[in-house]
Amino acid sequence: MTFQERLKHLLVSELNLEEITPEEIDDDMPLFGEGLGLDSLDAVELVVILEKHFGIEIKSLEEGRVAFQSINTLAVFVEERTA
Amino acid sequence: MKPVIRGVGAIGGFGCGIDALAAAATRGECLPGIVSVKTETGHVDMPAFLADTSTLEDFTGKKALRRIGRYSRMALLGSFLALRDAGITDPAKERMGVIIATGYGASRTTFTFLDSFIKGGDSLSSPTHFSSSVHNAAVAHVSMLLGITGPGLTVSQFGMSVPSALLTARCWLQEEMVDSVLFGAVDEYCDVLGYCRYRFFGDTAGVSGMNPLDLDVQSAIPGEGAAFFVLSRGDRVPGYALIEDIHFDKTRDAARAAGRETILFLAADGHRECAASYGRFLSGPSPIACYTPLYGSLPTGQAFDMAIAALAMKRRRYFASPGHHVKGPGAKIIGNEHVPGGERIACVKSDGSGWSGFVTIGSSDGEHDGVFRNT
Amino acid sequence: MNGCPRVAITGIGCICAPGRNLPECTDTLFAGRTKPLPPRGFRHGHSISYPVFEVPEDWIAPGSGTAGTSRTNRLVLAASMEAMTNAELDREILRSPRVGVCVGTTVGSAMNDEVFYRRYSEGEKPDMAPITGFLNGNPAAAVARQFGLTGPCQTIVNACSSGTDAIGVGALWIRSGLCDVVLAGGADELCHVSYNGFVSLMITDSSFCRPFDLHRRGLNLGEGAAMLVLQAAPLRHGAARRPRAFVLGYGASCDAHHLTAPHPDGQGLRRAIGEALRTSGISSHDISFVNAHGTGTKDNDRVESIVLSDMLPEVPFLSTKGCTGHALGAAGAIEAAFTVACLEEGRIPQSIGFESPDPDLPASPVRCATTLKGTVALSESLAFGGHNAALVLSVEEGTS
Question: Between chains, do C156 and B153 touch, taking CB under 8 Å as contact?
């Protein structure tokens, strides 16, 4: 499984996204607003998910703003923070 | 001002919908399910009346429910069912208010939130579970999914939640803050509540069925569910029944509310601690029924009695009180042979600390001679 | 609202970080003396300490409740004692079933005792006292028990608007003829569980909160209680004093938008304010100031500023949460108490924590103490779940 695939599985299971499969999430699909349709509550839940699964601490939402745009940007962010 | 009950939605151990409640009341029985209660010495199987919310997806689709916990799901299902029953497909959203009465609130989600940081540390506290763990989450989800923008209120007063909240619902209508109220009662069962029942009453209480009118026996079986009502002003509006009176206080005079021309539906639910306060009705002049064996013991169970009362008024026929033994002479128990003769039904709930709540339901279609007939 | 009687406020009690009673709170509010500190009542495991406005333990005398009474209930009983003493009600009146209690809370109704749940989760046999305490600890019932009240009793759990809603509902009970007297308000305690909840939502500031300020980064949690004695006016029941103030109007609505974010255009808040003004018979021109919800979060303050500049342009407003923190279910009641106190003083303090205007906000709060030009004010609350509530309060009886 690629890292992007792992992230997709994590989002689907942890955010309870029942109507979409990991395979249906494009790597560049916007996660918030259009695209996957996540909202502000999902954003703060994602912060917790990243700490729980990767030990990454995000202290403010501004830190996550660029990272949370798509699966690809999220993958880059996680890899940078866990290097 | 006497609110009209225009629609009823109910879910619980008896199934889903007012027809399911009517069917259980006609049968005079409802079999509880089994829950496995975790104790410090291993798991214990105990009875409980559990609700099934799977049909909610028929109203909302699956996606809309992804962050919605069970407590709010029961409220949503009750709401949709009540509105459908009232024939309301497009509620006047700004002029409708939502009031929910609950004893325990969103108990499952409360403990799920605690789990998130007890297991993982404070930094892993889940914001999604926190925001759904508050008692008013149900009103929030109902208002969002139904687009209702009038006032919203959640009342939590344990056994007195229903009459207390109804007082405010009636005020809203009387003061014309709204034209209709989506009024509901919701309580959910969870593992912790099951464990508390085990610790307080042991593992055998209730296992041979609820016997709530035997006041010396602890026979409560926990239940969960939701009973929702669409209430509005106006006594010429078609509906099930009127809410004639709401009386809730701590004075002994509360017993006066049960006049001669009143049938009593007692919300005695097998808890010995509260049982004594129902004793005066068993030997009193009014005929009584007790339907709690159909839905179990929960703080807001009185709302199910209101639903059964509304049904009885509409169909002009009582449901026999579910079979059980009554100690002591003189109690007049409602049987299949009893036919309404214009009397009112007082749904009565007493708690163990002296409070009593009476919700009196009356016919909504005109004058009657007020005589109880036993044909 | 239609019909008599009017709703008088004859007594007020208030306990929160700035003071153990309303006069102390008012002094501190005008002196601007409080600041938030790391919590002392509980430990937490966050890497950043988010400061809170805690009530000193010795302000809540053990004698204000029975042993084992929850902190929320000890706070509400302290405020209730002050309010009842202030109202100088004839004690005989309290026996009537037409005397009600209405209390707003969030923590006070939550079955979330950590010690109990940890032991249960770990397979141990926990002491059941926390559960018994919870079952016997409903806040409105606790107040009723304390004063021997036997009338309508209601605990409202409407998140951050609970206190405002409780006072509005109490006023409705009087106006509709259900009660002659209602003890109404709100109470909430600081606790580890709600601390974790708000921190997880990333809306808490690691420094002191700055409502409406350009540099605002979130709220500081607080705790406390405020209770008002509401009475049907004209007063009939042995009140030795004239009313302090009046509840002229109340409005409430749901955003129907989102579980934690307010409607971006403030539609629900507009409806609540509109309803409060309509039912009071007061025009927006007669509002001398607004006690805003003003938590210090980006979203809340932006929405309020937009709505206030639209509906009540040029009307001075402030947030008092820079002095009290956000006391959740108690907030609306504490702010109603402060609103009356400010009307009585004829002035409002500066909006503590505000220094730099945010160019994205069309209206900013007052930066210094301001003399009032009138006798009527609005106090508003916005809550998770999209509840909005507003009260119109006056030190004169009004003509609605």
Answer: yes
Range from C82-91, C145-154, C228-237 carrying the lowest mean pLDDT = C228-237
CB B299 within 8 A of CB B355: no
Is residue B324 scored above 70 in pLDDT?
Answer: no
Active site residue C237: no
Of C47, C202, C260, the CB nearest to A47: C202
Between B73 and B371, the more confident residue is: B73
Segment B240-244 shows an average pLDDT of 94
A28 touches chain B (CB under 8 A): no
- The maximal CA–CA distance of chain B, rounded, in angstroms, is 68
Give the tokens for residue B102. 């609950």
Q: For residue C152, which residues of chain B lie inside 8 Å, CB to CB?
A: 164, 167, 248-249
Residue B128 burial (CB < 10 Å; 0-12/13-18/19+)? Answer: buried
At C273-331, the pLDDT tens digits run: 999 999 999 999 999 999 999 999 999 999 999 999 999 999 999 999 999 999 999 99
Q: Supply the DSSP symbol for A32.
A: B
**Taking CA atoms, what residue in C is nearest to B254?**
C97
| Cis, bond preceding C234 (omega within 30 deg of 0) | yes
C-chain residues near A48 (CB < 8 A): 200
Give yes or no for C368 touching A (CB within 8 A). Answer: no
Quick one: pLDDT at residue B336? 76
Place of tokens 């209430």: B231
Asked whether the beta carbons of residue B139 and residue C385 sit closer than 8 angstroms, the reply is yes
Residue B293 to chain C, least CA–CA distance (Å): 23
Contact (CB<8Å) B144/C256: yes
Cross-strand pairs, B49? B223
- How does pLDDT run across C49-75, given as a tens digit for each residue? 999 999 999 998 664 455 568 999 999
pLDDT score for B236 = 64
- CB-CB: which of B120, B127, B128 is closest to A52? B120
Q: Give yes or no for A51 touching B (CB within 8 A).
A: yes
Instruction: Please indicate if any CB of chain B lies within 8 Å of the CB of A61.
Output: no
Burial class (CB in 10 A: 0-12, 13-18, 19+), B147: middle
Residue C314: CB partners within 8 Å, gap ≥ 6?
Answer: none
CA dihedral for B128, B133, B136, B138, sign (positive or negative): positive
3-state secondary structure of A77: helix
Taking CA atoms, C115 is separated from B41, C107, C119, C193, C299, in Å, by: 19, 15, 6, 11, 34
- State if pTM tops 0.90: yes
Can C160 be counted among the known catalytic residues?
yes
B120 interfacial to chain A (CB closer than 8 Å): yes
Tokens at C211, concatenated: 């409502």
* B63, B67, B126 ranked by CB distance to A48: nearest: B126
Hey, are the CB atoms on C97 and B147 less than 8 Å from each other? no
Which residue is catalytic, options C153, C293, C342, C387?
C293
Dihedral over alpha carbons C143, C149, C153, C158 (to 10 degrees) = -30
Instruction: Give the number of residues written for chain B.
Output: 375
Q: Could you tell me which residues come within 8 angstroms of residue C23 by beta carbon, excluding any fewer than 6 positions away?
A: none
Torsion of Cα atoms, B134 then B135 then B140 then B146, to 10°: 140
Average pLDDT, chain B: 90
Nearest to C156 by CA among C190, C113, C185, C181: C185
Task: Tell whether the model's pLDDT for residue C272 goes beyond 50.
Answer: yes
Is the interface score ipTM higher than 0.90?
Answer: yes
Give every CB contact of residue A14 below 8 A, 6+ residues apart in sequence.
A45, A49
C-alpha distances (whole Å) from C398 to each of B76, C283, C346 are 41, 12, 17
Cβ pair B73, B56 in contact under 8 A: yes
